[in-house]
């Protein structure tokens, strides 16, 4: 495989339904806690997870995309409808990829990655400070769909993107250990996340190894939110392959499944709940 930042054809610089478990009715349909201005990327701010039931496993690895990543973003009708600024996003991705050519860490990260995979990772981390129309939010909203119709729409709109994205993530070294993620609606989470309960969000989840990042995501409202302390084995550190590398984001796959491993507890003035990732084939490229 050729580097996503190197020369040649693999260059990243080219242009170019069932629900097995209960849902969380207390969270579903509610707006997330309003956030004041923050230095934390939107992906790491509080966001409700409306479903925790098992998600059908889509075979993204079996797809055979016929377009390169940027062409797919620019021409797929579903993506264009979901992300009206997709042309600007694609231009940002191209520019960011060119800059990574001069980043030694990024070159190491992409040694086994082609340009489409690199650009898919960059696309996911792109955000312009608003939620509506952000690629990662629109993608995750579709990934949370449990209905047959919703899963079919997901495949039509995001199938090729997911193929490139998951393939790219599979080329990164696994991140293991403890990560943190803040969730709003503490009381609703405590009511549903019972000790021993299996959990699957079904969407990509942004976490951080720094507890302080999770605390910052609360924007000072630590009484109505909760920090999940998650022991993982298959996270992916995006590092320089992000528009916000300073937060050292650890991304969890939609296929990740967890078990709640503690009741809620209070530490340093914050409420915590522990979860442990279960073993599974998350990246099969």
From TrEMBL:
Gene3D superfamilies noted in UniProt: Toxin ADP-ribosyltransferase, Chain A, domain 1
- Keyword Metal-binding in record: no
State if Secreted is listed as a keyword: yes
Please name the SUPFAM superfamilies in this protein's record.
Answer: ADP-ribosylation
Q: Which keywords fit this entry according to its UniProt record?
A: Glycosyltransferase, NAD, NADP, Nucleotidyltransferase, Secreted, Toxin, Transferase, Virulence
Q: Which GO terms describe its cellular component?
A: extracellular region
A single Gene Ontology molecular function, please?
NAD+-protein-arginine ADP-ribosyltransferase activity
Identify the stretch(es) annotated as Disordered.
1-35
What is this protein's name?
Answer: NAD(P)(+)--arginine ADP-ribosyltransferase
């Amino acid at each position: 495989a050729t580097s996503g930042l190197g020369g040649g054809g693999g260059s990243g610089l080219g242009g170019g339904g069932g629900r097995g478990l209960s849902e969380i009715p207390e969270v579903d349909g509610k707006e997330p806690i309003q956030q004041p201005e923050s230095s934390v990327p939107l992906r790491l701010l509080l966001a409700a997870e409306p479903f925790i039931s098992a998600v059908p496993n889509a075979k993204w690895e079996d797809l055979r995309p016929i377009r390169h990543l940027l062409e797919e973003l620019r021409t797929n009708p579903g993506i264009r409808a979901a992300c009206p600024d997709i042309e600007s996003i694609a231009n940002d991705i191209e520019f960011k990829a060119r800059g990574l050519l001069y980043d030694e860490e990024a070159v190491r990260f992409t040694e086994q990655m082609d340009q489409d995979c690199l650009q898919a990772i960059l696309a996911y981390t792109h955000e312009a400070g608003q939620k509506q129309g952000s690629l990662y939010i629109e993608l995750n909203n579709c990934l949370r769909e449990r209905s047959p119709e919703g899963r079919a729409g997901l495949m039509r709109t995001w199938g090729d993107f997911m193929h490139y994205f998951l393939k790219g993530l599979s080329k990164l070294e696994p991140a293991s250990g403890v990560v943190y993620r803040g969730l709003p609606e503490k009381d609703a989470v405590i009511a549903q996340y019972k000790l021993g309960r299996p959990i699957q969000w079904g969407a990509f989840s942004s976490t951080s190894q720094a507890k302080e990042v999770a605390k910052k995501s609360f924007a000072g409202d630590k009484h109505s939110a909760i920090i999940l302390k998650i022991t993982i084995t298959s996270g992916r550190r995006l590092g320089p392959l992000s528009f916000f590398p300073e937060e050292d984001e650890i991304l969890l796959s939609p296929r990740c499944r967890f078990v709640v491993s503690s009741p809620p507890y209070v530490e340093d003035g914050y409420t915590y709940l522990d979860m442990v990732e279960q073993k599974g084939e998350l990246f099969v490229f």
